[in-house]
């Protein structure tokens, strides 16, 4: 690339959905002829993709903007926090432009304005951008976003006010992207959205086309088609609606991974109602048991909030009993954090901080024991493992039960004859409360 190529630095904060936005912006910038550089001093301008989900994320975003301003000086802000531009410009009036989440054209337009794109004499897309686009994840797995926004109005969440109502991507576009990624070497597709189970609701499950075949814009049909591509397909952010039952047989058949990431957030019906959670009235335990009857190997991951405003001792105890009964594999738990603008903040009484912390500790103590027991049961089993890293004295991978970054890993000590992206058979030899150890079964 020539010395005159305009150079952009990029800071990507937040969740996998924001990461997908970053990848899309970077793909566009590269196809416009910009070079993406890894340090502030090499960059002519820096884009910061922010997260505004909770106050701690906002503080981190503001800090990142401040750092980019100090180190570089020319900064454009985008992403969730961009929906509340005042909060940024009040603290950092020097930023050149602020655009909101999914405003790809606007952020790229702002870059064009402050750092004009280079004159081009040839087809830029072919020269500069791999067909699968720019990926910020390692080459062997990729997040695939199937929709934007959300039709729910959970009372602790401000995402719909930041990202708007649900807009599903056309099923043919999603499948084209999935196919490009797999052709480029991706071994694992991580399907993300705000509510994956709602895919297609906004289009009334319109029939789209992929490779000349009709295909409905609906979770089951999408999973069925993606399952034919040969990569692992992992579903995130699914709610326990009755129609989720339809994808469990695909898991039992091995078409998609037997893994569901379902953010239950609570178990007590009154708290779920106060949270206005999707599928709050569903009989969750019955549903989980029915899924396990069809697909005994299914891994269930979830997240919960303790100390939601108004949560009583009895409701918290009910949640602990639910954990005992549900026997979930992987669980994250947070204390309630009053995000500015969330309607739940008006629910009384707020739970005192020390009670929240105590509930969190009791919750985690119970769940850690459950997760550890479930991992112990894997010792001796033979599992498929996707290799993530290879070092000098061994390699690290993940089983089908483990999503990158949020779940556990499996360590293959002394085994370096593999590459990231390899899928290998492993016998599990040991486990702790989070990770596994194993030995590769040589073919
Ligand atoms: S489902 Fe609820 S928590 Fe998730 S994005 Fe929608 S409103 Fe927020």
TrEMBL record:
SMART domains according to UniProt: Elp3 (SM00729)
Coiled coil: none
Domain Radical SAM core span(s) in chain numbering: 136-373
Keywords on record: 4Fe-4S, Cytoplasm, Iron, Iron-sulfur, Metal-binding, Ribonucleoprotein, Ribosomal protein, S-adenosyl-L-methionine, Transferase
Pfam families, alphabetized: Radical_SAM, TRAM_2, UPF0004
Cofactor(s) the protein needs: [4Fe-4S] cluster
Tagged with keyword Acyltransferase: no
Molecular-function GO terms, alphabetical: 4 iron, 4 sulfur cluster binding; aspartic acid methylthiotransferase activity; metal ion binding; protein methylthiotransferase activity
GO BP, sorted A to Z: tRNA modification
Subcellular location: Cytoplasm
GO terms under cellular component: cytosol; ribosome
EC number: 2.8.4.4
Domain TRAM: 376-442
Reaction catalyzed: L-aspartate(89)-[ribosomal protein uS12]-hydrogen + (sulfur carrier)-SH + AH2 + 2 S-adenosyl-L-methionine = 3-methylsulfanyl-L-aspartate(89)-[ribosomal protein uS12]-hydrogen + (sulfur carrier)-H + 5'-deoxyadenosine + L-methionine + A + S-adenosyl-L-homocysteine + 2 H(+)
Cofactor stoichiometry and binding remark: Binds 2 [4Fe-4S] clusters. One cluster is coordinated with 3 cysteines and an exchangeable S-adenosyl-L-methionine.
Chain sites annotated for binding [4Fe-4S] cluster 1: 15, 51, 80
PROSITE patterns from the UniProt entry: MTTASE_N (PS51449), MTTASE_RADICAL (PS01278), RADICAL_SAM (PS51918), TRAM (PS50926)
Record flagged with keyword Zinc: no
Boundaries of every MTTase N-terminal domain copy: 6-116
Top-level taxon of the source organism: Bacteria
PANTHER family linked to this entry: RIBOSOMAL PROTEIN S12 METHYLTHIOTRANSFERASE RIMO, RIBOSOMAL PROTEIN US12 METHYLTHIOTRANSFERASE RIMO
NCBIfam families noted in UniProt: 30S ribosomal protein S12 methylthiotransferase RimO (TIGR01125), MiaB/RimO family radical SAM methylthiotransferase (TIGR00089)
Homology family: Belongs to the methylthiotransferase family. RimO subfamily.
Role description: Catalyzes the methylthiolation of an aspartic acid residue of ribosomal protein uS12.
Official protein name in the record: Ribosomal protein uS12 methylthiotransferase RimO
Gene: rimO
């Amino acid at each position: 690339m020539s010395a005159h190529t305009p150079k952009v630095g990029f800071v990507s904060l937040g969740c996998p959905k924001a990461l997908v936005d970053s990848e899309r912006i970077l793909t566009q910038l590269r196809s416009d002829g910009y070079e993406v550089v890894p340090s502030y001093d090499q960059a002519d301008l820096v884009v910061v993709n922010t997260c505004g989900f909770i106050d701690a994320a906002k503080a981190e975003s503001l800090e990142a903007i401040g750092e980019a301003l100090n180190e570089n000086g020319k900064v454009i802000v985008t992403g969730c926090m961009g929906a509340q531009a005042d909060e940024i410009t009040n603290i950092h009036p020097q930023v050149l432009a602020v655009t909101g989440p999914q405003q790809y054209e606007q952020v790229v337009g702002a870059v064009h304005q402050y750092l004009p794109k280079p004159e081009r004499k040839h087809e830029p897309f072919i020269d500069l951008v791999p067909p699968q686009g720019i990926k910020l994840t390692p080459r062997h797995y990729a997040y695939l976003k199937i929709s934007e926004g959300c039709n729910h109005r959970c009372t602790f969440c401000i995402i719909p006010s930041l990202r708007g109502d649900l807009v599903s991507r056309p099923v043919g576009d999603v499948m084209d992207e999935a196919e490009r990624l797999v052709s480029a070497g991706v071994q694992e597709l991580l399907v993300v959205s705000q509510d994956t189970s709602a895919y297609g609701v906004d289009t009334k499950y319109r029939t789209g086309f992929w490779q000349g075949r009709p295909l409905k814009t609906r979770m089951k049909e999408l999973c069925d088609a993606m399952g034919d591509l040969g990569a692992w397909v992992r579903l995130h952010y699914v709610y326990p609606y009755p129609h989720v039952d339809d994808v469990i047989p695909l898991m039992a058949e091995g078409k998609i991974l037997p893994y569901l990431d379902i953010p239950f957030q609570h178990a007590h019906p009154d708290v779920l109602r106060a949270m206005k959670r999707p599928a709050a009235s569903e009989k969750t335990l019955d549903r989980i048991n029915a899924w396990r009857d069809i697909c005994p190997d299914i891994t269930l991951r979830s997240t919960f909030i303790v100390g939601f405003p108004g949560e009583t001792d009895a409701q918290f105890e009910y949640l602990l009993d639910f954990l005992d009964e549900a026997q979930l594999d992987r669980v994250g738990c947070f204390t309630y954090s009053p995000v500015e603008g969330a309607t739940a903040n008006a629910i009384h009484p707020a739970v005192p901080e020390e009670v929240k912390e105590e509930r969190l500790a009791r919750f985690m103590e119970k769940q850690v024991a459950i997760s550890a027991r479930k991992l112990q049961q894997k010792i001796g089993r033979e599992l498929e493992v996707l290799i993530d890293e290879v070092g000098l004295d061994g390699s690290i991978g993940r089983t089908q039960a483990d999503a990158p970054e949020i779940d556990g890993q499996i360590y293959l000590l002394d085994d370096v004859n593999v590459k990231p992206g390899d899928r290998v058979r492993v016998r599990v030899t040991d486990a702790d409360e989070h990770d596994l150890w194993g030995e590769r079964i040589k073919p």
